[in-house]
């Protein structure tokens, strides 16, 4: 019997060697078909499976490696599929993730755009029926005036902690010192000494605030064009870096100078008082509570805040605004801005509806 099996093996061995089609190591393409052949042969008969194993042993000279070679071949065929799919997925993720933060800045519409106030009022009426009744009693606001960002920021610094008449007097002398409103430029302010500014009624502290603002313009940290293009969060971060400009000043600037539609001045006492009266709250809401209470007003919280000022004005409430000034977080008192003639700190960017 041993002689017969040896004879059979010797007869079967020369057959695959003479056939060039059964030489898989030289051509990588047939190796992918090797794992499928033994499975079909084993189902038919055990003899043919032994013959196939013997034919494969001539190629590798080891029958054990032939059983392992299909596994390695299968992994080899599967591994390039994984690499080819992972590489393009990475290339697709990196470019798509970059333009996402830029989209909101391009889609923001100013309140001075035609028809935007009407859209805002329709949204507020639907989102908040309580506010809807307040809108019916007041004419809509009008945002149609504009000053350059540098001039508006300089003006807001000068009006801090001053009554409207006193602030207007100092601002008029300051503009005359600069040669007119068109001359209120960073280089002009930097050329003025604290003594010159003090002669027109500007304190040394406010003079340092004006110089810090002008230096950030001169160094390229801020510019009128960048201020107009930045989104609300980035703009808030950049402007609060200026000495003397805090969160309240930035919010007023964004609403009444840039006409941004979705600004909620959480530190403004007038807006907080209006929210308290509108919803019948027992206590004045804290700034940390304002975001949640006014969430339904998005994305037109600026317009809703305007109605809070009118609501408090109609009730005859005389209050002062708590202002957080820059990094020092100092509490300051500022002249109330509920004058329908002068506007909010006379930023020159809002015409009040009568």
From TrEMBL:
SMART domains, per database record: ENDO3c (SM00478)
- Biased composition range(s): Polar residues: 61-76
Q: Which keywords label this protein? A: DNA damage, DNA repair
| Gene Ontology molecular functions | damaged DNA binding
Q: What is this protein called?
A: HhH-GPD domain-containing protein
Q: For the region Disordered, give the residue spans.
A: 1-103
* Low complexity bias locations: 1-18, 46-60, 77-100
Q: Does the keyword Cell wall biogenesis/degradation apply?
A: no
- Family to which this protein belongs: Belongs to the alkylbase DNA glycosidase AlkA family.
Q: Where is the composition biased (Basic residues)?
A: 36-45
For biological process, the GO terms are: DNA repair
Please give the organism: Ilex paraguariensis
Ranges for domain HhH-GPD: 158-313
Pfam families attached here?
HhH-GPD (PF00730)
């Amino acid at each position: 019997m041993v002689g017969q099996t040896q004879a059979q093996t010797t007869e079967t061995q020369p057959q695959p060697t003479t056939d060039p089609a059964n030489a898989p190591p030289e051509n990588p393409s047939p190796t992918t078909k090797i794992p499928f052949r033994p499975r079909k042969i084993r189902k038919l008969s055990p003899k043919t499976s032994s013959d196939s194993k013997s034919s494969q042993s001539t190629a590798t000279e080891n029958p054990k490696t032939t059983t392992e070679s299909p596994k390695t071949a299968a992994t080899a065929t599967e591994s390039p599929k994984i690499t080819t799919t992972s590489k393009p997925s990475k290339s697709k993720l990196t470019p798509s993730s970059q333009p996402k933060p830029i989209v909101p800045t391009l889609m923001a519409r100013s309140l001075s755009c035609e028809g935007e106030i009407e859209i805002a009022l329709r949204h507020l009426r639907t989102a908040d029926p309580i506010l809807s009744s307040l809108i019916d009693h007041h004419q809509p606001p009008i945002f149609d005036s504009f000053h350059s960002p540098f001039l508006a920021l300089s003006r807001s610094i000068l009006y801090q902690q001053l009554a409207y008449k006193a602030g207007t007097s100092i601002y008029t002398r300051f503009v005359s010192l600069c040669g007119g409103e068109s001359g209120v430029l960073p280089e002009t302010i930097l050329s003025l000494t604290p003594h010159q500014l003090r002669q027109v009624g500007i304190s040394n502290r406010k003079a340092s605030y004006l110089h810090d603002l002008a230096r950030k313009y001169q160094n390229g940290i801020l510019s009128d064009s960048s201020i107009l293009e930045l989104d609300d969060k980035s703009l808030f971060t950049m402007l609060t870096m200026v000495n003397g400009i805090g969160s309240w000043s930035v919010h007023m600037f964004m609403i009444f100078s840039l006409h941004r539609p979705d600004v909620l001045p959480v530190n403004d006492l007038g807006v907080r008082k209006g929210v308290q009266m509108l919803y019948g709250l027992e206590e004045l809401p804290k700034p940390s509570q304002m975001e949640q209470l006014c969430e339904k007003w998005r994305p037109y919280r600026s317009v809703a805040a305007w109605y809070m000022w009118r609501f408090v004005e109609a009730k005859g409430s005389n209050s002062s605004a708590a202002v957080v000034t820059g990094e020092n977080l100092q509490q300051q008192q500022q002249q109330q801005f509920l004058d329908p003639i002068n506007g909010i700190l006379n930023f020159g960017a809002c015409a009040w509806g009568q």
